[in-house]
Amino acid sequence: MRVDESDVSAALFPGQGAYDMAALQAAHKEYLEVAEVFADIDKVTVEECGRSLSDVLFGASPSVNDLMADEPWVSQLTILGADIAA
Questions:
Q1: How far is residue 30's CA from residue 17's CA, in Å, rounded to a whole number?
Q2: 53 and 38 in contact (C-beta within 8 Å)?
Q3: Is 78 helix (H, G, I), strand (E, B) or coil?
Q4: Which of 2, 29, 52, 78 is the most exposed place for a label (fewest CB within 10 A)?
Q5: What is the mean pLDDT of residues 65-80?
Q6: Model-level pTM?
Q7: Spatial separation of the C-alpha atoms in residues 8 and 36, rounded to whole Å
Q8: Residue 70 neighbours by CB under 8 Å, 6+ apart
Q9: Cβ-defined contacts of 74-81 (< 8 Å, 24+)
Q10: How far is CA 62 from CA 13, 30, 32, 65, in A?
């Protein structure tokens, strides 16, 4: 099967180097879908880790250094949530 170039698309998912806390917090306030993604992640983090990722990210303004110094799941799930929300 031949694919016409106009039918080709690509998806890019940001990694740790593309993380921007201010942009994520702004998107969380502006778009319900972003809040919904993190609400789903919170269900798991509360059960598995004893605290909500949203409380860590949106209750204060942690720096990237703060996130990296926290438990490893915090930064990794933050990036995952940002990827999914995007």
A1: 23
A2: yes
A3: helix
A4: 2
A5: 80
A6: 0.72
A7: 29
A8: 56, 62
A9: 75/16, 77/41, 77/45, 77/53, 78/19, 78/24, 78/53, 79/14, 79/15, 79/16, 79/19, 80/41, 81/37, 81/38, 81/41, 81/53
A10: 22, 19, 21, 8
